[in-house]
Design brief:
Elements: H1 4-14, H2 18-28, E1 30-31, H3 42-45, H4 50-57, E2 65-66, H5 68-91, E3 94-104, E4 107-118, E5 122-131, H6 133-138, H7 144-157, E6 161-168, E7 174-180, H8 183-197
Parallel strand pairs: 5-6
Antiparallel strand pairs: 1-2, 3-4, 4-5, 6-7
């Protein structure tokens, strides 16, 4: 005998417009664009996994289809940035948005979310992130991978202060963690990039988080 939850699910499923659901999803699916070879991206440098970073730098990350759900998640992130651009404009503090940040040694290419004016620091870098309720409640400081990202921007631009700004996906509450420019942290990132560039073969093991893309290769 079917459970109550299964019966309710079947009941709801029966009254949905399946044509509309199918065609929305099919219109959003797309092939993932391969990352440019020979360049490090700040988001990739936040990974703990040298194998993944090696694959990214050498153009070896397997192309995957972006699902309709993933596309909607990415689009929500884009509109989050759009909202905060309007917020900062309303506050009359917005200086730059989506600024391209590049370096030749090591080769790094990224895009800074926001640069705003600040009464204490004069200019402040903003790295904007969305996060679910559980993750938001657990935050006592920026996530390590996000600290790496903003340290890259601070050290490449020369600004002294940044903030990782989190918005909870569930209730839109926010947290803002200040990050100061740290030359020692930047040296670690710099040295890691050079170590990856000088590798002659792919690291054998994935050392990243449980959701690292390397784990999907096996």
């Amino acid at each position: 005998m079917a459970s109550l939850s299964e019966l309710l699910e079947d009941s709801v499923d029966g009254i949905q417009d399946k044509w509309l659901l199918k065609h929305i999803d099919s219109s959003l699916k797309e092939a993932q664009r391969p990352a440019r070879q020979g360049v490090f991206y700040p988001s990739a440098l936040g990974s703990l996994c040298d194998r993944y970073l090696y694959n990214c730098y050498n153009g070896l990350v397997k192309e995957e289809e972006i699902s309709a759900v993933a596309r909607r998640i990415f689009d929500c992130g884009d509109y989050l940035g759009y909202r905060y651009e309007k917020y900062f404009e309303k506050m009359d503090v917005l200086l730059e948005t989506e600024s391209v940040i590049k370096a030749d040694d090591p080769p790094i290419s990224g895009r800074l979310d926001f640069l705003i004016s600040h009464p204490e620091h004069e200019k402040l870098l903003i790295e904007l992130k969305s996060i679910n309720q559980r993750g938001f409640n657990a935050l006592k400081e920026p996530k390590p991978e996000h600290t790496v990202q903003i340290q890259i921007y601070l050290n490449l631009t020369g600004y002294q202060h940044g903030v990782v700004l989190y918005e909870c996906k569930n209730d839109q509450k926010i947290k803002a963690f200040e990050v100061k420019k740290d030359p020692d942290h930047w040296k670690e990132i710099y040295d890691r990039c050079n170590r990856i560039m000088n590798m002659t073969s792919q690291p054998e093991k994935c050392t990243g988080y449980r959701y690292c893309a390397c784990k999907r290769e096996d």
